């Protein structure tokens, strides 16, 4: 058995090693008490920075031809099932297009809906050659629609200065392209004002 002095020295050294931030005077003060609470100082872990995954640039997307539709795939019949899926999607979105449904509510939901697969017609345009183009929307960009017609021709129709009509279950909605210059992902969060307009 160790003597009292040795025991005191051992405890003092142990406390000094266990609590390096505590001064000798404080340790001596602790030794005069019967109860002692040891504190633990864990080592701080260095935070690892998360690396953000970078997507393709616009130039890389063009080089890889990510958004191009191959000529052999440019057939109206291929995309008819997509149109049927789109109609079911709109019916679910509008909780069924019933005759007593309020038109402005349906219009508001269509403005935010995904239009890939919808059949649209250019009803008005400042460029007469666009009027009458009807087809399924295959791709929507910020400024243009890519539409496949019944003649299996892929048309790139600008939104600016064009009015599009969209019909589903007897409900016809008109889209003013000049007010629609957004990507489809941005439209879902935008608040549209349901007011009439006379310009294209």
From TrEMBL:
Organism: Formicarius rufipectus
Name the UniProt record assigns to this protein: Ribonuclease P protein subunit p29
GO terms assigned for molecular function: ribonuclease P RNA binding
Keyword Lyase: no
Assigned GO CC terms: nucleolus; ribonuclease MRP complex; ribonuclease P complex
Protein family: Belongs to the eukaryotic/archaeal RNase P protein component 1 family.
Stored Pfam families: RNase_P-MRP_p29
Gene: Pop4
Gene Ontology biological process terms in this record: rRNA processing; tRNA 5'-leader removal
Purpose: Component of ribonuclease P, a ribonucleoprotein complex that generates mature tRNA molecules by cleaving their 5'-ends.
Subunit (UniProt): Component of nuclear RNase P and RNase MRP ribonucleoproteins. RNase P consists of a catalytic RNA moiety and 10 different protein chains; POP1, POP4, POP5, POP7, RPP14, RPP21, RPP25, RPP30, RPP38 and RPP40. Within the RNase P complex, POP1, POP7 and RPP25 form the 'finger' subcomplex, POP5, RPP14, RPP40 and homodimeric RPP30 form the 'palm' subcomplex, and RPP21, POP4 and RPP38 form the 'wrist' subcomplex. All subunits of the RNase P complex interact with the catalytic RNA. Several subunits of RNase P are also part of the RNase MRP complex.
Cell compartment(s), UniProt: Nucleus, Nucleolus
InterPro entries with a match to the protein in the record: RNase_P/MRP_Rpp29-subunit, RNase_P/MRP_Rpp29_sf, Rof/RNase_P-like, Rpp29/RNP1
Keyword Signal recorded: no
Keyword field: Nucleus, Phosphoprotein, tRNA processing
């Amino acid at each position: 058995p160790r003597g009292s002095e040795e025991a005191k020295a051992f405890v003092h050294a142990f406390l000094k090693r266990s609590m390096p931030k505590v001064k000798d005077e404080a340790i001596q003060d602790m030794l005069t008490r019967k109860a002692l609470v040891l504190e633990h100082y864990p080592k701080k872990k260095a935070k690892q920075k998360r690396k953000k995954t970078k997507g393709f640039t616009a130039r890389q997307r063009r080089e890889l031809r990510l958004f191009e539709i191959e000529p052999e795939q440019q057939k109206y019949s291929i995309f008819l099932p997509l149109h049927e899926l789109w109609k079911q999607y709109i019916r679910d979105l509008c909780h069924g297009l019933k005759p007593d449904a309020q038109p402005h509510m349906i219009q508001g939901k269509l403005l935010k809906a995904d239009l890939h697969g919808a059949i649209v017609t250019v009803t008005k345009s400042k460029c007469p050659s666009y009027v009458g183009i009807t087809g399924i929307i295959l791709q929507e960009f910020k400024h243009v629609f890519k539409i496949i017609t019944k003649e299996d021709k892929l048309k790139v129709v600008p939104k600016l200065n064009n009015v599009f009509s969209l019909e589903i279950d007897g409900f016809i909605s008109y889209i003013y392209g000049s007010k629609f210059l957004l990507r489809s992902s941005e439209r879902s969060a935008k608040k549209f004002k349901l007011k009439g307009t006379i310009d294209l």
